[in-house]
Amino acid sequence: MTSCTTVRPEGPEEAYAFAAPFRAPQGSPIRELFKYVGRPGMISFAGGYPSKDLFDREGLARALDAAYRSDPIACLQYGDTAGSPLLRRSLARLMAAREVNCSADDIVVTTGSQQGFDLLLRTLIAPGDTALIEEPAYPAAIQALRLAGANIVTVRTDGDGIDVDALAAQLDAWPQACRPKLLYTVPTFANPTGATLPRARREALVRLATQHRIVLIEDDPYGELRFAGTPVPPILALADACPGGRDWVVYFGSLSKIVAPGLRIGWAIAPAPIARRMIVAKQTSDLCTSPLSQETARHYLDSASLESHLRSIVGAYRSRCEAMLKALTHFAPNEVICSAPQGGMFVWARLTGGRDAADVLKRAIERNVMFVPGHAFYVREADASSLRLSFAAPNEAEAFEGARRLASALSQT
Ligand code: PMP
After folding, report:
1. CATH topology identical between 24-54+307-411 and 63-303
2. I want to staple 87 with a disulfide (CB 3.0 to 4.6 A). Which of 1, 298, 320, 392 is the partner?
3. What is the pLDDT of residues 92-146, one digit of tens each?
4. Of all atoms in ligand 1, which is nearest to the CA of residue 114?
5. Would you list the domain boundaries of the chain?
6. Whether residue 258 has its Cβ less than 6 Å from ligand 1
7. How confident is the model at residue 378 (pLDDT cuts 50, 70, 90)?
8. How far is the CA of 113 from the centre of ligand 1 (A)?
């Protein structure tokens, strides 16, 4: 009789022989904070979650009902990997309103835009390939690049987003043999800085990407959440004016921040050779995005509910942002310096007096208020004084009370 005892000379961690990026993986630093969010009385400036009070529950219930009644089989059956043709048509109309010229065939529906980024990395990045990313940056983009084994190189930003002159100099000095494959940016109401890249910089970015043959990734979940200032067209819209520019821009859109993240509906608009490969990658990822969710999203978009919903959430975010900034100025006038975003969900702030935001967070959690310390948004060296404050979730009264608690935490640090 043969023995089936497995000999494991090492501890179980080693015995599994994990692939390199998963040997010592770092989880999302923001998701780690979520254990505190449910605590009674907690006021959270931490997550990039849309406000739970502001979901269009009625409108979405009607869309779900209409989707199921009008075509239950389309909701229940597997669907096209690239997405439902009808939803893609509705999304093309949405993109036309954003000044982007595209057809339904140019759109790939993804399970959240996060999946789109992951699929794109699978088609472009082999371990060791260089990827550029703005810094500070969206943590899940950094995490995805790390898991893809990319050589991550950061690009400098200022209060207006990517410093294109610095980037041009960086690219001019780059050795030809190992040029970067892509550049990731959130140009409108960035996560975490809230910054918006001005039009001239957008045009310059397209020119640089085209000249250096770098895929420029425009991640745009927040663009419609403008409550001040003048709208700027997406980079993708401006790419048409640069010869060959459209060949180098990949755009990610999402319904998460403007409708509901629970739908998990995102979309990608990519040059055809890239889109084709992303669809192949998606075939091995989830076969297709939930048809029930896609049909619901399509009915919601086609019912014109989005326009009035956007008006209501943008108004609410404006007053929540103002309330938070006013309260911080009132309670901690000399301790925190805040950015003043024109939309989105985030204020980027710096603590004065050499305070470390991670230390302040510990005191803040004791007082039932939370934020995300800046280190989550840096690839290597972090600015320890920085922090991200989301104004989306707390209402005006909570923003006031949260700022008071934060000031108390600051006074003890
Ligand atoms: N990009 C950015 C900049 C984000 O902030 C988020 C969500 N926090 C995403 C992408 C992911 O969005 P989705 O829910 O569409 O996957």
Report:
1. no
2. 298
3. 999 999 999 999 999 999 999 999 999 999 999 999 999 999 999 999 999 999 9
4. 16
5. 24-54+307-411, 63-303
6. no
7. very high
8. 6
pLDDT, tens digit (0-9, with 9 covering 90-100), for 231-250: 999 999 999 999 999 999 99
Do residues 295 and 71 make contact, with C-beta atoms less than 8 angstroms apart? yes
189 lines ligand 1 (CB under 6 A): no
- In the prediction, which pLDDT does 163 show? 98
Nearest residue to 246 via CA among 224, 222, 267, 273 = 273
Q: How far is it, in rounded angstroms, from Cα 1 to Cα 177?
A: 59
Task: Average the pLDDT over 216-230 and give the result.
Answer: 98
Q: Is 48 in the pocket of ligand 1 (CB under 6 A)?
A: yes
User: Does any ligand 1 atom lie closer than 6 A to the CB of residue 131?
Assistant: no
Whether ligand 1 lies within 6 angstroms of the CB of 193 is answered as no
> Is the distance from CB of 252 to CB of 216 less than 8 angstroms?
no
CATH architecture of 63-303: 3-Layer(aba) Sandwich (3.40)
**DSSP class per residue in 233-270:** --HHHHHTTSTTGGGGEEEEEESTTTT-GGG-EEEEE-
Percent above pLDDT 70 for the chain: 97
Give the tens place of pLDDT for each residue, 2-12.
Answer: 444 555 556 77
In the block, tokens 């204020």 appear at: 347
- The alpha carbon of 272 and the centre of ligand 1 are apart by a number of angstroms equal to 23
Which one, of 74, 93, 49, lies nearest residue 304 by Cα?
Answer: 93
Q: For the structural domain made of 24-54+307-411, what CATH number should be given?
A: 3.90.1150.10
Pocket test for ligand 1, best of 33, 49, 138, 345 (most atoms within 8 A of CB): 138
Give the model's pLDDT for residue 306: 94
Task: Give yes or no for a contact between 346 and 139, defined as CB atoms under 8 angstroms apart.
Answer: no
- Binding site membership of 390 for ligand 1 (Cβ less than 6 Å): no
Pocket probe for ligand 1: among 34, 219, 390, the residue whose CB has the most ligand atoms within 8 Å is: 219
The rounded Å distance from CA 273 to ligand 1 centre is 24
CB of 129 shorter than 6 A to ligand 1: no
Q: Which amino acid is at 137?
A: A
**CB of 256 sitting under 6 A from ligand 1:** yes
